[in-house]
Structure prediction request, 269 residues.
Amino acid sequence: MRKIQFVLFSLVISMLAFGCSDAVDQLTGLTPENDVEMGKSVVAQIAQDPTNYPVLSEEDYPEAYAYIQKMTDAIVASDDVKYKDIFHYDEVKIIHNDEVLNAFATPGGFIYVYTGLIHYLDNADDLAGVMGHEIAHASERHSSDQMKENLGLQIIVQILLGEGNVAQLASGFFALKFSREDEAESDEHSVIYLNDTEYACNGAATFFEKLSASGQSSGPEFLSTHPSPTNRVQDINAKADELGCDKSGISETGISYDDFKDSLPTPAQ
Ligand SMILES: [Zn+2]
Prediction:
């Protein structure tokens, strides 16, 4: 299947080269390999903008990086995570901003987590739930679908061919709004993935419970779409019950979640 898509993509390229852009809309569009290329463009733009995206260096924070990558690897090991041979789930980055309760994944599986989210959550299961949700946006290709919708296939193809404005891809990515269906699907996949790990399979629910309790009802990514936090908690727990999966928390060996927090820059009081 991937081969067929690649051939179709090559067709798009040759048609564009010959100015036959009408044919583009009739073709299926972007391949998972294209997702990776798009992701790399977004990653490059983030790297060029340390003011807005102060990514912690892996050299200075080896313990923190080892912890978050180990967690991500455990989730990605689930059979239900797709494209693990080509997506970059193994390059998680931490953004140093204690005010932001967020995480995101680019097309192609490059994942970013804010220190604000890590400090806000209480344990590894909660963060694993959020990571599962982000991995699902990449694995289910929500972000590439949305980018295709927002920017148009032709513009994306031109950028990937080196003929367009690369910055447009990144701004297209950061303007993404996932649909209610995408959010619900990612919540559900978080439960499915975590069911294959030692983390509490409904870890994502805790995040929304906490947000509801603290009265925060709007914010980026997680809360930008319609399902209310309360509904999402119910849906996540219903999925966990349906799967009959383990809701008890992981007993961590080695570095604990608190150690992980301590290994990050100390938050301003
Ligand atoms: Zn989401």
